[in-house]
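Objective 1b: paired records.
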Amino acid sequence: MLNAIRQDEDNPAAQAMMALFAMLYPGGHQYGRPAKGAWKPSVGWTARRSGNFTVRDFSPAVLTVIIVGDIGSERAASVSLRVFGAWHAAPPAEAALAHPAAPAVRRERVIR
């Protein structure tokens, strides 16, 4: 993933799209942030912060299990229940998907 992020940093089209979405969806709106994330050195990244990220962003409420192969539905359900059945977490907070208000002035961004 880091390689893909760095490739986007060197891609004018990717930079233009990220700038456009940041302008269309300002103020930390999830559509205004890079979908792949941003490269930032992991200074200060701790196991605790990593655990908080996991609890916040990965929970049973947003989990999709995909099983591929020659397995019956009863067996798939049984294995899924055994692996994930004890996993209980609060559902994630509602995402801010509302469209932001139209800007009052024209905005322009030059990418060099």
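Objective 1b, second protein:
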Amino acid sequence: MPFNTNCPGCGSLGPCGCSGDQCNFVSSDNVKYIGPNLSGTGIQGCDDLTTVLQKIDYAIALIEAQISPTPSTTTTTTTTTAVINCGTTSSLSGGASYPTTQSVVLSSATGTVVLNYNAQSVPDRFIVDWNSSVVIDTGYRGSAAYDFGGGSRSSFTNSLTGLIDPITLTPYPNFSTYPDDGYPRIVGIGLGTTSFVKNLATNAFAIIKVYAPMSSTVWSYTLNCPTTTTTTTTLLV
């Protein structure tokens, strides 16, 4: 695996451009990988030595888990709840659920379907399927403390380790999709609104899945009924 080093003040002798004992103490930040991107591990050109070793360690651990699976320390529950009508609020408080799945009756009406969601602080992800396609994916929403570099990041990533990403269908950690540390980023605050357009009278049901990997989660959502926007034109005479 080709590396290049930056050794300030060193001579031109030796494989790294330094001589004698002058390179005995080199910070790992100054040792850079200069080979091609390695998608299987997530290693990319210019990664420093520490990052490369961490990614190799993750990759080995994942391979070992696939060859000799051990019981998961993460306990999650898949929950299917009763069908509800559009405009009805659904909620959950406490207990990991990966995912909670619910069918929502949208009727034969067409128009814009608005999803109001609230993951509060503990991260949750809301995905809506309609007409056999994903029409909404909020990504994980919640407190920035659970984002990459945040103080609560490890508790979030630990809850996802070994679970399957619902879109890529690959287990976490997945450096190909999430190069920072192998896990999804927190893409926004818990409270939000998004929408899709239901342009068919058929397929009157939508399916919403809430991915809540942490046991302390609290979330709610309302998938509203389709509405059309009408415009009024005033003629001046």
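The chain has two helices and 13 strands. The helical segments are 49-67, 153-160.
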